Predict the 3D structure of the following.
Amino acid sequence: MIPFSPEVFFALFEEYNLAIWPAQLVAYGLGLLALALVFKPSVSGSAIIGAILAVFWLWNGVVYHWMFFAPINFAAPVFAALFVLEALLLIWRFVIRRDLMFEFRRDFAGSAGVTLMIFALTVYPLLGLASGHGWPQSASFGVAPSPTVIFSFGAFILARPHMPVFALVVPFIWVLIGGSAIWLIGIPEDVLLPAAGLVTLLLFVRRKRHLT
Amino acid sequence: MQGIASTGALITTGQLLPDIAQAQPGTFQARAIPSTGERIPIVGMGSWITFNVGPSQKLRDARVKVLQTFFDLGGAMVDSSPMYGSSEDVIGYCLKQIDNDRALFSATKVWTVSEAMGKRQMKRSADLWGLEKFDLMQIHNLLDWETHLRTLTAWKEQGRVRHLGITTSHGRRHGDLMKVMQSQPLDFVQFTYNIGDREAEKRLLPFARDKGIAVIINRPFRRGDLFSRYARHPLPEWAADIGCENWAQFFLKFVISHPAVTCAIPATSRVDHMVENMGALKGPLPDARMRRRMVQYVESL
């Protein structure tokens, strides 16, 4: 039950993108930095990656959901709260406790994680462009939920020893919500969202089995 | 087809209902609100999704034209809700831009819990519309209805709202709605009824008619599903006999020809669709036999 039409959704996205410019460029820069840091694993580097992800989630909660989409969507305040909660969880585990590390390894999981991060930065916006809603109507990396969640899934796959289950709850909730937009609003690039969720789930289960 | 509607009957029971409204060509179909006798045009306008356009100036101005067309063609009831995002804000914007809204019958809803939150929300709705009071305030989807009904009953006595009502858009809540209709003094009820979803014919519509409760019908096009299913087929030739030039009028005339229906509220964001919808206000309405024929036709497609 989406209370707005695709026409309104893309019109609001256009207003949003123009209003927050050049935050998109900053987000891309932070995303590239996070991607680079997974290849040089360290506690401080992981804290930086965790902080970058937290900033993305916080931005999406406060600016995207609360400030821009709440006026047209009665559910947006709930989404805002969930995204802020995820940001707090990331800060707690990666910045404060620092008991998890992002680490690229030359195995299937490592390749899958990095591939999802690169997809979020490149393939997602290109699919949007191909489906007829490129800039400024596009869901930009880091400042829109779906590419942020795909990027986060990629990073979560690289987390060692493994991401805690509770930190995966909100991203998977968004897989269900954002995934419905593929058909309900007409955002074909969001097909990457359930695909990324499925890969993350399978690798998470495999990792848990391996560790136990 | 002169007099076609004068021998109408409930489609499910065959019970004779001799006073189905009939309009001569060029006049508007209107029905009386049983509790007050006030007559309102039988086609109104909903605003779910269609008027929730947010801050976009371009889309807001496009909705001004839709609302202007609605009033130009004889419309009166505009229905909204705080649940519909920016719809109330946009309706208020539109009303400020146009000068042909004297017929406006303003209808919105309260959709929250607690007395204090309800009062605050209803005042905010009035501010958004730019009105001092609403013609109709409804309790949305029965949410905390006992609390809001107390408030609205008091407000009605004080003249702060003209009519009160209760709504549901869910078939599974029809039983709950029926209980409220049986036990409470209501001016209006609102629920879903269309040619593909006729459950309301069994109990809600006959009971509303017997108890003198005005009925607003939402989703007369079944959220567009009726067009998806049937619009690729041709209208039957006999549709012209009941003044239907398109499928929108066919679906709407089926709904508004039920004698218990006071007003149907299709929603649209397009001027051409508004023109089609409001065309249902004119010409004869189908009688019971024709209504059965309409059902048989769509079920044969």
User: Anything to note?
Assistant: Chain B touches chain A at residues 48-50, 52-56, 58-59, 83-86, 89, 269 (CB under 8 Å).
